[in-house]
Amino acid sequence: xxxxLRQLAKLLELSPTTISRALAGYSDVSSKTRRRxxxxxxxxxYHPNPVAxxxxxxxxxxxxxxxxxxxxxFKDTFFLDLLAGxxxxxxxxxxxxxxxVAPDAEHEIDSLHRMVQGxxxxxxxxxxxxxxxxxxxxxxxxxxxxxxxxxxxxPRPHAFLDxxxxxxxxxxxxxxxxxxxxxxxxxxxxxxxxxxxxxLEGYRNGLKSGGLPFDPELVKEWRHQxxxxxxxxxxxxxxxxxxxPTAILFHTETAAGILQA
Length: 261
Fold this sequence. Notes:
Elements: H1 5-12, H2 16-23, H3 31-43, H4 50-57, E1 62-68, H5 77-92, E2 96-102, H6 108-117, E3 123-126, H7 134-142, E4 146-149, E5 159-161, H8 165-178, E6 184-188, H9 194-209, E7 219-221, H10 231-239, E8 247-250, H11 255-260
Parallel strand pairs: 1-2, 1-3, 3-4, 4-5, 6-7, 6-8
Helix pairs in contact: 1-2, 6-7, 8-9
GO molecular function, one term: DNA-binding transcription factor activity
Organism: marine metagenome
Keywords: DNA-binding, Transcription, Transcription regulation
């Protein structure tokens, strides 16, 4: 027989508050009472109302991530794996992942505002971080919990996780030099984002360590929304140089265009 909270409380001769606190694991309810309540709840198929529990705790038990449709996140299999990993990790601690998709990057701040001011989430995760990022400044100003997948130039303390782009591209460049390449190109991302900044730094450091000069003609910027600046077109431009490169360093999302060229 299924019962509601008041019925379960009446059966156990306890107050509804005690039942709720026992099922929520509060320490002010004895372990003996907690076990008694848990056993009865299981027997009578009683499940606490999750909305009421969250209101009681003052938590949504949800983490938000704000994206923009213009960025084509879902074309990158790495990003899909990242989302899956975040979701699995959150579920292990009883949290859900809420994804808000804005029409473009400029409206991501509106998505953040709705989530934060509407108290829809307990924290945020931000990706594709920029050197100067309005989203990060907003969350810092609001003193709202967040974690970055990436970095920014804002000097205020904040949590982040990032790939060492400088090291990765420096070592990749050095490896190509060791293979005998002397004309190494870079198809990099948009310069307002932080990761391409580190990639360019690593590329230049790799050339320097191998005794090769930096040639700006071998560096191209890829922009996914500009057909003229696609990785395909940039690769064709590199191959048309009087002295074309013998190797190209690139981001994973540009691979299809480069291989097609």
